[in-house]
Amino acid sequence: MWSNIFLFALLFSTYNNVAVQSFCVADLKGAQTPEGFLCKPPTSVKVDDFILSGLEPPTTPPSSNSSKITLTPAFVQQIPGLNGLGFAVARLDMDVGGVVPLHSHPDASEMLIIVRGTVTAGFIAADNSVFVKTLRSGDVMVLPQGLLHFQLNSGNGKALVHLAFSSSNPSTQFLDVALFGSNLNSDLITKTTLLDLFEVKKLKAIFGGSG
Amino acid sequence: MWSNIFLFALLFSTYNNVAVQSFCVADLKGAQTPEGFLCKPPTSVKVDDFILSGLEPPTTPPSSNSSKITLTPAFVQQIPGLNGLGFAVARLDMDVGGVVPLHSHPDASEMLIIVRGTVTAGFIAADNSVFVKTLRSGDVMVLPQGLLHFQLNSGNGKALVHLAFSSSNPSTQFLDVALFGSNLNSDLITKTTLLDLFEVKKLKAIFGGSG
Amino acid sequence: MWSNIFLFALLFSTYNNVAVQSFCVADLKGAQTPEGFLCKPPTSVKVDDFILSGLEPPTTPPSSNSSKITLTPAFVQQIPGLNGLGFAVARLDMDVGGVVPLHSHPDASEMLIIVRGTVTAGFIAADNSVFVKTLRSGDVMVLPQGLLHFQLNSGNGKALVHLAFSSSNPSTQFLDVALFGSNLNSDLITKTTLLDLFEVKKLKAIFGGSG
Amino acid sequence: MWSNIFLFALLFSTYNNVAVQSFCVADLKGAQTPEGFLCKPPTSVKVDDFILSGLEPPTTPPSSNSSKITLTPAFVQQIPGLNGLGFAVARLDMDVGGVVPLHSHPDASEMLIIVRGTVTAGFIAADNSVFVKTLRSGDVMVLPQGLLHFQLNSGNGKALVHLAFSSSNPSTQFLDVALFGSNLNSDLITKTTLLDLFEVKKLKAIFGGSG
Amino acid sequence: MWSNIFLFALLFSTYNNVAVQSFCVADLKGAQTPEGFLCKPPTSVKVDDFILSGLEPPTTPPSSNSSKITLTPAFVQQIPGLNGLGFAVARLDMDVGGVVPLHSHPDASEMLIIVRGTVTAGFIAADNSVFVKTLRSGDVMVLPQGLLHFQLNSGNGKALVHLAFSSSNPSTQFLDVALFGSNLNSDLITKTTLLDLFEVKKLKAIFGGSG
Amino acid sequence: MWSNIFLFALLFSTYNNVAVQSFCVADLKGAQTPEGFLCKPPTSVKVDDFILSGLEPPTTPPSSNSSKITLTPAFVQQIPGLNGLGFAVARLDMDVGGVVPLHSHPDASEMLIIVRGTVTAGFIAADNSVFVKTLRSGDVMVLPQGLLHFQLNSGNGKALVHLAFSSSNPSTQFLDVALFGSNLNSDLITKTTLLDLFEVKKLKAIFGGSG
To answer: Which strand ranges, in their side-by-side order, compose the sheet holding B140-143?
Structure first.
């Protein structure tokens, strides 16, 4: 009696033949829109568009860079199936003494899950309240959108943190890199931050900024 | 005195010559974005982009398929002017004994307006509360987004239902077709649903699933 | 072996005991927010919160009012379960000669499904293009958000139209009632519309406007 | 010790090489989406994409058109960097007696900042309440989305108003131009507005409407 | 010279004294809105509103329930600071043979980060495409909103998975619990799923459903 | 003939008696939601809820504070009718040498309209591109959401700037005040910014920070 409900299903789907899928996998080579990438044709979507097999310990140890951290993102560029879904994750490896310097995400909130180690994290609210906590394995912390925050490995061993973001393509503004690694004129920096010119010049030498 | 306000209007609109229209009619042959289709050029928009002349009784009777229903959508593929507006409608014809099998819309809520006949409809909430009601002509029911629901013609005659959706391109996941008409491995089905393997095999034979 | 998966489900849901439901049924006596009403407590939600049993032919015939139409809404005030879902429906009965005068919905697009009769409907776009069509049973038309539009029964019999809106609580601004039924000063009306003062006064007498 | 944090920053950004910027500057020659224009490639973005150097007094005096006003927009077509940001501004110059005739913005709310002069502004709410106020330099007024409103220079000198909109590309529907400058049939106008046919014909002659 | 910029800051903030914070920490005892909970007064916000110290291995082993899994959420009820931010995380412990039965999230997409073990996960798209993959430590997978999906421990040891959701309060609909643990009438189940009545009764006995 | 269309309008509006208005004026003494304030009862809304009569030159000259600027906001706290509309404006007075120090708005983009004077403004993008421009009367500049930016009066006289924001209640994070006027521990500051401890202490003395 019900043997051709399948035919019905096929009939139904002919009406929806353009967009029967309920997701929009990024065409990473195509144009971007204010809400993400254009979609790949549904027929070319495959399971690996939803998967990243690389959220692993970095092959180059974090200690090989001066901040002793490595961030491995699983954002829309790594997982095209995240397009338009409004969230993403990442992995953060921190060697002893590792620091994620003061930064903000202009378009995303962040969560930390401490997998291993001891991490001191904090953010400064718009009313200048400070929210700092030393977190251990199993602790979770939220860092609301657009606010300056930091993480540092405050333990005696390596730390591993899983991150979640409320954007599939979060951008990051590092305070030091923005100020001292860009070509923002040193005079403008001192006028708008009150930092000492000597200090600015010293940090520009470190971060490679010009101007 | 006011004779050239029209000139003013023309002047004003020259500033807006790219996008003076306040809608985005779908270019159905163009790419999709996470928020819908790219827009047709305003100059090629015509009244029929906002109209569907086909929400009529089906020429093939619903009883010619095993579920005894016919769904006629008026979604963005049928009405390009719906693009970006976030809603759509459809017509559902149900013969005696017709059933819309258990299904959900991953990206849309639904409303039913019973035009003719007697229809029993229901949905199961995320806390497993069941909301079922037998509806008659003039009754309206809401089925919130993403929840399993069904409709069946519980009367003695044909039923006609008008549907509204909170998406201009709602997708549908039929439980039976997803499980038994797809290539999802039978072993995975039994493990993740506790359904009996014999039952799974029997339904796969009906719905045409492999694996 | 699986006999206590139910226990698991119960355990799981204890974590979500405040908001395990995935909808927000309006507390119609409570405060409103920019996104709709506050939610009723989940424990007091019942099936009738999702149902309206009154989208029926009006008991008072449309011809008893001068525009010869009756609009019966199924909005959030009638169906509290619509709260936050972003759409609604309504029923429009039009006697011979019935007219829905020129109006707009500041916060919603609209769709018409002609159930019975012949209806001429149209809207004026922001670039002053006019989109008018005479619709018959089975025709569907979209009227994009915020634009002036109208419907009139252009046939020889009664017309019945089902409406859908992209808001669960659409508001309506009737041009005539706004101008001539409000207390907007007549002098301001003539200056900002160029309508003749005599015409304004005449229509104010009809619509009851002061000023 | 910290000398290669800059290297770290570079490493980090290689992951984000497609979309490291947190904005989407409009490609004004490209297609539009329901949420705005496609984005320019990040490498071609320059400071002038965020700037308009033309919100100045009009070279042609407002009094050269019959409504004695000039509107100078700073919308996404003028400032591509506004794409996707959801707001815009404009400048309104009004000569003595200048009037912005009754109109609405289907997709945007508006704010007025009176820079100079005396302006009477008002809007009509969906419940026909009228909100009118005579504003002077330093006064600010909000006009909610989709509602009919107007501004007129009610002082003895020129007026200058800065406008803000809650859309980066607001559209405008002028009542008079929509009704009397379009090709909407005169018979339809009288039926759906109750305006006198003679009045309609007279205004069509002024605004250039046909039909 | 700059010594009172601090005073300026104080002055500035007096304007914003109601809502100077840029987040809305949930008042978990207050009412809910369609977009989340009402906000706590800013003055009562403390660092622990942004922290959960409980995403740890469960004290009761997963194997003590029949599905051999334990889910530990870090949703808005656990972390009030998540309110309105649109994402959340959780921890999933799976013993050998553990299964998260077929389910969907009506209002959230999900990501899996495999921390330890081997997990087979999959989802069925609305066009009945099946996306299944066996994931190992370091693999990440996305499961788009509203679609049926499952996870099972397909390895020889325990598995640990971190989950992220695109909602701060995701709801879950387990297929088995919805069908066989609710009071949905058995006759309705067989009619709308084609499952055998005997099978339905057997599973109702397991999951505790009535009707 | 049409004399009772007004009656019709009254009839129609009885259906909408709770929320016939299409806006939500803030009840500033009530609770906040993630999307803004609760709404005032429609019956208590008055024209002044949409108006601020105070965007005037400050009575205390900007030069009385060390940054020589005064910001006068027209946000939702000043204009309750802005609630839920997603934008706001403000007035910025800058004396000679006035500076708006480096800051960001976590939840809003900003536009500048230079009314008078010469202002150098700039922002740093997430890829460390710097966008700086010296603006004169009639220039408009956009500063995208969440990015560090500044303005300084680079001319010889006073400057007046009108600001627009893409939030009705934008928050602000001043870099100096966040770092040196809060109680963020000095050791954490040096570790996460590489600033010299002596510099940090000196600025804390200026901005009043502890820790």
So the answer is: B69-74, B88-94, B159-165, B110-116, B140-143, C51-52
Model confidence pLDDT, tens digit, residues B51-96: 999 898 788 888 777 889 999 999 999 999 999 999 999 999 999 9
Chains that touch A (3 or more CB pairs under 8 A): B, D, E, F
Q: How many CB pairs under 8 A join B and E?
A: 134
The alpha helices in chain B, defined as continuous H runs, are 5-14, 175-180, 186-193, 197-207
Note the pTM of the prediction, 2 decimals: 0.94
Give the mutation candidate from F127, F130, F190, F196 for the D interface (greatest D CB count, under 10 A): F127
Provide, rounded to the nearest whole percent, the portion of chain A with pLDDT above 70: 90
Q: How many CB atoms lie within 10 A of CB C156?
A: 8
Contact F172, F117 (CB under 8 A): no
Is residue E176 within 8 Å of E102, Cβ to Cβ?
Answer: yes
Tokens of F191: 């570790």
**Among D residues 130-189, those touching chain C with beta carbons less than 8 Å apart:** 130, 132, 144-148, 150, 152, 171-173, 175-179, 181-185, 188
Residue type, F41: P
Decide if A10 touches B, using CB distance below 8 A.
Answer: no
Summarize the confidence of residues C64-71 as an average pLDDT: 87
Average pLDDT over residues E106-122: 97
Taking 50 as the threshold, does the pLDDT of residue C2 lie above it? no
Token pair belonging to A36: 């993400």
Alpha-carbon separation of residue A170 from A74, A77, B31, F146 (angstroms): 10, 11, 24, 12
> What pLDDT digit, counting tens, does each position of D92-113 carry?
999 999 999 999 999 999 999 9
Q: Which residue of F has its CA nearest to A122?
A: F184
Q: Are residues C126 and C147 in contact, defined by beta-carbon separation less than 8 angstroms? A: yes
C-alpha distance across the termini of chain B, in Å: 79
CATH topology (fold) of A47-52+63-171: Jelly Rolls (2.60.120)
For chain F, count helices (H), then strands (E).
Answer: 4, 13
Please say if the pLDDT value at position B4 is more than 50: no
Q: Where are the domains of chain D?
A: 63-171, 177-207
Structure ipTM: 0.92
Count of C-E CB contacts under 8 Å: 86
- Cα separation, E92 vs D86, in Å, equals 39
Most distant CA pair in chain F, distance: 86
- Rg (Cα) of chain E, in Å, rounded? 22
Please indicate if the annotation marks C105 as binding a ligand: yes
Phi, psi of E33 (to 5 degrees): -120, 170
Give the pLDDT score at E102: 97
pLDDT tens digit string along F43-56?
Answer: 999 999 999 998 88
- What is the CATH number that goes with domain C65-171? 2.60.120.10
**Residue C188 near residue D134, CB atoms below 8 Å:** no
Vertex A151 angle, CA A147 and A155, to 5°: 160
CB E95 within 8 A of CB E153: yes
* Mean pLDDT of chain F, nearest integer: 90
Q: Which CATH class is domain D63-171?
A: mainly beta
CATH number of B47-53+61-171: 2.60.120.10
Which residues partner with A22 through β-bridges? none
CB D67 within 8 A of CB B63: no
Between CA A72 and CA A50 the distance in angstroms is 17
Cα separation, C175 vs C187, in Å, equals 17
- The DSSP annotation for B12-62 comes to HHHTTTTT-SS---B-TTS-EETTEEPBPPGGG--GGGGEE---S--SS-G
Edge to edge, the sheet with strand D69-74 lists D69-74, D88-94, D159-165, D110-116, D140-143, F51-52
* DSSP conformational letter for E38: P
Q: Is pLDDT of B36 > 60? A: yes
Question: Which residue has 């306040």 as its token pair?
Answer: B22
Two tokens at D72?
């100078």
